[in-house]
Design a protein that fits this description.
- This protein is an alpha+beta fold and 89 residues long.
- It has 3 helices and 5 strands, in the order E-E-H-E-E-H-H-E.
- The chain has helices at residues 11-19, 55-65, 68-71; strands at 2-4, 7-9, 24-34, 38-47, 77-78.
- The strands form 2 sheets. It has a 3-stranded mixed β-sheet with strand order 3-4-5. The chain has a two-stranded antiparallel ribbon with strand order 1-2.
- A hairpin with a 2-residue loop joins strand 1 and strand 2 (7-9).
- The longest helix is centred in the C-terminal third of the chain and has 11 residues, at 55-65.
- The mean pLDDT is 79.
């Protein structure tokens, strides 16, 4: 749960919304520190091979879907994610 400006934002809810974009292969939504809102919503997105997706396209998709109160606090970034093995035997 991400706490942003007195609201609770479910990261799963945001992830499911971003997964609706056909260019998205993987997404992880996290809360990052924000001086005014306590936390801001951030998305780490892996784009499918051969596809392109801009930050603005993700933001436009989010703002067209989210309630007005969440729109101003959302921002997204994208990069490739490297997976690591944790807790393997």
């Amino acid at each position: 749960m991400i706490r942003s400006g007195g609201e609770n934002v479910a990261s799963r809810e945001v992830e499911e919304m971003i997964y609706r974009l056909p260019q998205v292969s993987e997404v992880a939504v996290i809360g990052v520190p924000h001086p005014k809102w306590v936390e801001a919503v951030a998305a780490v997105i892996v784009v499918k091979a051969g596809q392109s997706l801009t930050e603005q396209e993700v933001i436009d998709h989010c703002t067209s879907t989210w309630r007005r109160s969440r729109r101003r606090r959302a921002w997204c970034s994208r990069r490739r994610c490297q997976r690591i093995r944790v807790g393997s035997c």
